[in-house]
Amino acid sequence: MIIHRGHRVVAALLLSVVLLTTACTPKAPGRFDQAQKESTQQSKGLAVAKTATQGSEFNKLFPKASDGYQGVYTQEKKGFANLKLKKGGKDIALLSISDTTGTPAAAKFSKSTKKIGGYPAIEVGKTQTAILVGKYQVKAISSNPSFTASDRADWLEKFNLNGLAKLK
């Protein structure tokens, strides 16, 4: 009986030592720890400015869908709103308005030589057209090859650009 107690005491003592040493050992960084650290640091500089316009203010400025097109509002948050443009049940384009306050987005328009609706315009790749109305970027992104650069420009002109220019 004394031998069994001795084994129990030794086992309990060894278990305590193992738990104590593993609990106090610093944890080796996991394979995702560095990525988490970088993404957390990046988002600090990209946060939406406190003075950004509420996304709900933009909804009334989007063009009304017509000629067989349907518009579906898909996202609205501070500084941003977008509308998915559909035709025949298929996604054709994504239209958006974003507040560029606190972001470098407006800088890309400084060398623009093209205008749409009287505002500086740029092409981004082969599927995006954007204009800058004051501090607001208005963008049309083709999600179907049938929606061309000309279509994007036409839809950008359908926005209530004067109303957007008056927003503060």
From TrEMBL:
PROSITE patterns reported for this sequence: PROKAR_LIPOPROTEIN
Signal peptide positions on this chain: 1-23
Keywords: Signal
Protein's recorded name: Lipoprotein
Organism: Nostoc cf. commune SO-36
Lineage: Bacteria, Bacillati, Cyanobacteriota, Cyanophyceae, Nostocales
